[in-house]
Each structure stands twice: as structure tokens, then as C-alpha cells.
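We include the entry.

. . .
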Amino acid sequence: MQDLGILGGPNSAAQAINSKSQIVGFSDLSQTVTHAVLWTAPNQIQDRGTLGGNYATAQSINDLGQVVGWSTLQ
């Protein structure tokens, strides 16, 4: 098991991994803002943002790096 890091808030979670070891999920920026994230080796967390709201999560990733998930708009 390995700590994947956070974006500054209290929580993060991995939702899926592909065969290239790319991991997607979410990470909190604060108590009220959560962004979708992509983790790549070694220990690099990338903020994938939202569609304008305060919450987004990435739920799956294929081997081409295409991600699906959802986001609030407000």
C-alpha cells in the first residue's frame, strides 16, 4: 500500500486503476471543495478540477487514459 497524497484538504480516495498504473479518484481541497484527480508514478498527483462546481470525482480510467466520472455544476 502507498500513500498517494492529497491536494491540501483532509481526504482523498482512489476509485480505479488501469494497466499502466494510472490511478483516478478524488481529493479534497478544503472541507467543501473536492476535485477529480489523476495519480501517476512516482507519487505525482494531478488536479483534474471540476466542471465549475465544488465537487468532482473520477471513477474509471481505460488504458488510453480516458477518464469517466461526474461533477457538480454549481
Q: What stands out?
A: The first strand starts at residue 12 and ends at 17. The chain has one domain: 1-60. The two ends are 35 Å apart (CA to CA). The chain has no helices and six strands.
